[in-house]
């Protein structure tokens, strides 16, 4: 018994597109650049994969 949410493929694709678009905007921000200047190599790899790297790897 669900709450009547629309779980069609089109709705899922729209949601994924919305999240990916927001992630792209986040990567373009100055904050990410400043964080990247402070991280060591392994933290930067982790940060990359948890932001835009996830979408690159799933394409």
From TrEMBL:
The domain of life for this entry's organism is Eukaryota
Query: Which GO biological process annotations does it have?
Result: (1->3)-beta-D-glucan biosynthetic process
**Limits of the Glycosyl transferase domain:** 1-59
Keywords (alphabetical) are: Membrane, Transmembrane, Transmembrane helix
Transmembrane annotation, as ranges: 41-57
Q: Does the keyword Cell division apply?
A: no
Q: One GO term of the cellular component aspect?
A: plasma membrane
Q: Name one GO molecular function term.
A: 1,3-beta-D-glucan synthase activity
| Pfam families xref list | Glucan_synthase
Protein name as catalogued: Glycosyl transferase 48 domain-containing protein
